[in-house]
TrEMBL record:
<feature type="transmembrane region" description="Helical">
    <location>
        <begin position="238"/>
        <end position="256"/>
    </location>
</feature>
<dbReference type="InterPro" id="IPR050351">
    <property type="entry name" value="BphY/WalK/GraS-like"/>
</dbReference>
<dbReference type="InterPro" id="IPR003594">
    <property type="entry name" value="HATPase_dom"/>
</dbReference>
<feature type="transmembrane region" description="Helical">
    <location>
        <begin position="204"/>
        <end position="226"/>
    </location>
</feature>
<keyword id="KW-0902">Two-component regulatory system</keyword>
<feature type="transmembrane region" description="Helical">
    <location>
        <begin position="109"/>
        <end position="127"/>
    </location>
</feature>
<feature type="transmembrane region" description="Helical">
    <location>
        <begin position="139"/>
        <end position="162"/>
    </location>
</feature>
<keyword id="KW-0812">Transmembrane</keyword>
<dbReference type="Pfam" id="PF02518">
    <property type="entry name" value="HATPase_c"/>
</dbReference>
<keyword id="KW-0808">Transferase</keyword>
<dbReference type="InterPro" id="IPR014265">
    <property type="entry name" value="XrtA/PrsK"/>
</dbReference>
<keyword id="KW-1133">Transmembrane helix</keyword>
<feature type="region of interest" description="Disordered">
    <location>
        <begin position="667"/>
        <end position="694"/>
    </location>
</feature>
<feature type="transmembrane region" description="Helical">
    <location>
        <begin position="12"/>
        <end position="33"/>
    </location>
</feature>
<dbReference type="InterPro" id="IPR036890">
    <property type="entry name" value="HATPase_C_sf"/>
</dbReference>
<dbReference type="InterPro" id="IPR005467">
    <property type="entry name" value="His_kinase_dom"/>
</dbReference>
<keyword id="KW-0547">Nucleotide-binding</keyword>
Amino acid sequence: MTRYLRRTSDRVLLVSAILSFLWAGSLVTQQVWGEPTFIIRYLLELLRDAGWVMVLLALLRAAEQPRMGSDRTRRVLGFLTFSVIFVLFTLAALEYLLNFPLVSGKLKIVGQIALSLLGICLVEQIWRNSVQSSRSSIRYLCIGILTLFAYDFFMYTDALLFGQISSGFWDARGAVNTLIVPLLGVTMMNTRKQPVEFQLSRNAMFHVSALVFAGIYLLFAAAGGYYVRVLGGDWGDALQMLFITGALAFLALLLTSRRFRARLMIFISQNFFDYKYDYREEWLKMTRELANLSDEPPLPERIIRILAGLVESSSGALWVRDEDGNFMLQSAVNLNQPRFTSIDGDCELAQFFSSREWIIDLEEYRNDPVRYNLLEIPDPILKFERGWLLIPMYLGNELYGITLIGRANARVELNWENFDLVRVVARQTCNLLAQADAQNRLSRAMQFEAVSKASAFMVHDLKTLIAQLSLLVRNAAHHRNNPAFIDDMISTTDHAVQKMSNLVDHIRKPMSDHGDQEPLDLQKMITELAAHYARNQPRPKVLGPQDAVMVRADRDQLWSVLGHLIQNAQDATPPDGEVSLTLKASTGHVVLFIQDSGTGMSEEFIRMQLFKPFESTKGLTGMGIGAYQAREYVRQIGGNIDVTSEPGMGSCFSVLLPTVKIAARSDRQQITDEPVEPTTAQAGAGRAGGLHSS
């Protein structure tokens, strides 16, 4: 009393302890000496309950930074509690003075149950809304007070149901009160800690209100069940069970009803808070909804539910602008779709939304069209019978979509706060909708690009085959009697047939991009390529060592890649120029240098256009994908293509490929993927010129 009474909550706690001591003493003296009477003990119990309620209210009042609406909540809860105490105390005092029973014992029990329930609600409210760091200073006090009220609640509820107080509850009541004394002592020792910082939230108020409503409802249900049993005669017990079961089912229906929950939340927002919305909660809820990357439910449906939930609705529809500028219906939630759903992009409503960011109340529009300058609403919107709000959705400063919200589940009075929040959320969700649409368009464009790319590669190969066959046709009239020409024509035609067959197989099985890889003698292939392209001028020359160099690749694809590079070198070189093919090997790799003395290329052309698909220097006769296709395949098998060139000085293509090792055995040769060791001549060439020297 001399050291720990600095704060109001401490002094109120002392008063409550004194009242509890007097109440407990009256029970002891009544048990020993038969005094005082029941009314005196009942009045002291009411004072004891009032003392503990005052402690809880003092905790609310002791908040250092009270939140908006906390004073109002404290006043309402305090008014309800002390109203019950005042009524019960007044009736009991009059009964004592007049010596005449004014109320029955059951009404006194109902009053005690109500007091206990209000006390439990106050404890729950304090604990739910206190800061996590400050809960340690009030934990023991809240647990002690909650124990008192909860025990009384169960004891008096049991007495109401069975018509008398249970001897077990009554005998243990003193021991239960004794158990909380150490908790109060710990609270007093922690009194120098910070008081609770009370933070009121709409969800907490909603839960407390629902709990109070459920408690009061159950009290009336219990009373109704009792009178049904009394008046029911032989069927009293059965009728009582039927009545209680129906009451519980009806309570479950109320608590799960969206309309009831919406009306209760609106009542709480209007009477306990300065703002209608808990903006932090609304923003977190919207973030959780939009963070879902799956398509269940689809994004347009989620956006409708978010906007509808802001005004206590559960239905709506969404239109989004298409490529033609019209608005197409994307989704409708809990609304019957009309036959025609598209909205003209040049309609009067679209022009109205393009000039001003207004939210149109269709009920207000139907009652007073002049308020909206006799605006014409399209039929696809008016055909929705339960339509309520029309919300424009902007992407930047342009109208991107229109959202229709269905009628609310409860009567909602809209003001500037509703409209501001709806407009902000509409803009945020519209950005996500536009991003999703852009991703879909990009995906379609990539699919078309893949098809176009495959078609271009196919056309490129067909163009090469057509050039070969056309050359045969032009020379057939002059060399039809030449046996060598006939042999060459048969060979070329057979090669064309094989190429077209491979092309058809590749189209049927596009997954086999690497082909059937096998060990190949690159030196032998270079020699065959030089002989194959010797008919064109200048003839390619094979220089350097003639040792076998093994690589792993698909023969047809590697032949096509190297042949394309050799043919390009011939096309860029005059007939009197030179085209040379040189192989140089090192540990694990081999480099093929395809060098010409042709026109050459600029450094900018090599960097920006040479390996870029669909860029060609051959005009309409080229597809611009040969070099790109060649480098992509070489990279697929672990190599690379590099180019050095100067205008007027020629070019050198360096084709780097990984080699495989030949392991000799007694009866056969085995080829492995281990790096090949260079020969003395190859090592000397590598040291003299390096891999990329020309």
